[in-house]
Amino acid sequence: MAGDSIAVHKPALEVTGKVTAGKAEEEFRNYKDSDRHALVSRHYACMRKNQTVAFQEKMQAKYGSFANTKMTVWEAFTALKGYVDSSDPDSSLPNLEHMLQTAEGIRAAGHPDWFQLVGLLHDMGKIQYLWGHAEDGQEGTADGDQWALGGDTWVVGCKIPDSV
């Protein structure tokens, strides 16, 4: 088998989102004046209510074996073309486009190659939406609840500050 070559199919990754140039840095992560405010607020309220130690243990038992499927990175990217993160007040772009923009921003800023790769892959775990169920905080669609997948993180089992 030495010397055999394997054909690799790379599906087209069509980027369709629109980006408005010139947004000031302080305008990002605006959780109050975003047109996505109600969606984002509901997302974080559900996270804080439902992400408990017991929930984390249940999800570790359910998904910790990595037995759902096998796919290439390109196949996972393709699956993320339809997922829009309900925790993001800044963007309604599909997650794949966000990942590509993040990697490109890192490259354009002159950061090392390894950091660009991290930017590209940073949201890859959201692929779990494909196997989600409503009781798990993800309805198995890109449009349903996502409180178990996206958003900021904190240590489960600790009191969440009132300021949050």
TrEMBL record:
One of its GO terms (cellular component) is cytoplasm. It comes from the Eukaryota. Keywords: Cytoplasm, Iron, Metal-binding, Oxidoreductase. It is an enzyme of class 1 (oxidoreductase). GO terms for biological process: inositol catabolic process. Binds 2 iron ions per subunit. Pfam families: MIOX. Its EC number is 1.13.99.1. It catalyses: myo-inositol + O2 = D-glucuronate + H2O + H(+). Pathway: Polyol metabolism; myo-inositol degradation into D-glucuronate; D-glucuronate from myo-inositol: step 1/1. InterPro entries: Inositol_oxygenase. Fe cation binds at residues 98, 122-123. Its main location: cytoplasm. One of its GO terms (molecular function) is inositol oxygenase activity. The keyword Cytoplasm applies. The keyword Cytoplasm applies. It is found in: Cytoplasm. Its cofactor is Fe cation. Belongs to the myo-inositol oxygenase family. This is Inositol oxygenase. It comes from Phytophthora ramorum.
